[in-house]
Write a structure and sequence with these properties.
Radius of gyration: 17 Å
Number of helices: 9
Number of domains: 1
CATH topology: Rossmann fold
Distance between the termini: 35 Å
Order of helices and strands: HHHEHEHEEHEHHHEE
Number of strands: 7
Strand order of the largest sheet: 3-2-1-4-5-7-6
CATH superfamily: Vaccinia Virus protein VP39
Mean pLDDT: 91
Helix content: 40-55%
Structural class: alpha/beta
C-alpha cells in the first residue's frame, strides 16, 4: 500500500498540495451538490455531530481549516454563536462559492474566508479557542506539520475537532462501501463534475489515511492531549477530538 503522502489526485510532478488545489478548483461548482448526493445527505448530520463537541467550551473565536465552500463555518456560526469564524483553504474557487453562501445568509460580519496553507498558518500563537477540520486532513501534504500548526494557534484549553472519512470493517458494509467508492462514485463524479480522477483520488486517499488509533497516536505525537475517536455510520466516517494544555 502507498504511503498517505504518496497518493495525489493527478500523479504529476507538481506535488500533493498543488494538485489538491487544482482538483478542488475544478470541482468547486458542483462540490456541494455532489456531497449531498454521494453521502445521501448524511454528511450534514456528520458535520453537526462534530460541531457538538465544541458546544461545552462555547468558543468565541474559531478557525475552520480546509473550509472549502464554508459549510462547517456556517453551521458553527449558527450553532455555536461565536464572535468570529475564520475559514482558510488553498482552493480559491471553493472560497468564492463559500463567500456567496455566507453573504446570502447574512453572516459576513462573523465569518471571513481567506486563502491559507494549513502547514503555514499566518496567525499568532494562541489565537483561537477552537480549530475544526472537515474532510481536509487526509489532503495535507505533511500531516504532522499541519497538526502542529493547528495546535500552535490554539489557545491553552482549546479543542481540535476533525471529521474525516474512515474504512468500515463490518461485513457487508465494508464490501458495499468499497464498491461504491471505488467504482460508482468516480463514475458519478465524471458525469457531473467532468473530473473522474478527483473522485478516484477520494477512495485512494481514504484507503491510506491513518485512521482510528493510528491517528489518535499521531495527535499525541504532535502534543495534543486526550485524543478521542468516535466512529459514525458503521465506520464510514470518524470524529477525532483533542485538546491543547
Amino acid at each position: 500500500m502507498k504511503e498517505e503522502s504518496a497518493v495525489t489526485p493527478y500523479g504529476s510532478e507538481a506535488g500533493k498540495k498543488a494538485e489538491v488545489e487544482q482538483m478542488f478548483d475544478r470541482i468547486a461548482p458542483r462540490y456541494d451538490l455532489l456531497n449531498r448526493v454521494l453521502s445521501l445527505g448524511i454528511d450534514l448530520w456528520w458535520r453537526k455531530r462534530a460541531i457538538a463537541y465544541l458546544k461545552p467550551a462555547k468558543p468565541a473565536e474559531i478557525l475552520d481549516v480546509a473550509t472549502g465552500t464554508a459549510d462547517v463555518a456556517i453551521l458553527m456560526a449558527k450553532i455555536l454563536k461565536p464572535q468570529r469564524v475564520v475559514g482558510i483553504d488553498i482552493a480559491n474557487q471553493m472560497l468564492e462559492i463559500g463567500r456567496g453562501k455566507i453573504a446570502a445568509q447574512g453572516l459576513s460580519d462573523i465569518i471571513s474566508l481567506e486563502t491559507g496553507d494549513c502547514e503555514q498558518l499566518r496567525f499568532a500563537d494562541d489565537s483561537f479557542d477552537a480549530v475544526a477540520v472537515a474532510f481536509g486532513v487526509r489532503n495535507f501534504e505533511n500531516l504532522e506539520k499541519g497538526l502542529a500548526e493547528m495546535r500552535r494557534v490554539l489557545r491553552p484549553g482549546g479543542r481540535l475537532v476533525i471529521l474525516e472519512f474512515s474504512k468500515p470493517q463490518v461485513f457487508p458494509v465494508k464490501q458495499l462501501y468499497n464498491t461504491y467508492f471505488k467504482y460508482v462514485l468516480p463514475l458519478i463524479g465524471r458525469l457531473t463534475s467532468r473530473d473522474m480522477r478527483a473522485y478516484t483520488y477520494l477512495f485512494e486517499s481514504v484507503q491510506v489515511f491513518p485512521e482510528g488509533k493510528q491517528f489518535t497516536e499521531i495527535l499525541t505525537k504532535t502534543d495534543f492531549q486526550n485524543p478521542l475517536c468516535e466512529r459514525l455510520t458503521l465506520g464510514i466516517c470518524s470524529i477525532y477530538t483533542a485538546t491543547k494544555q
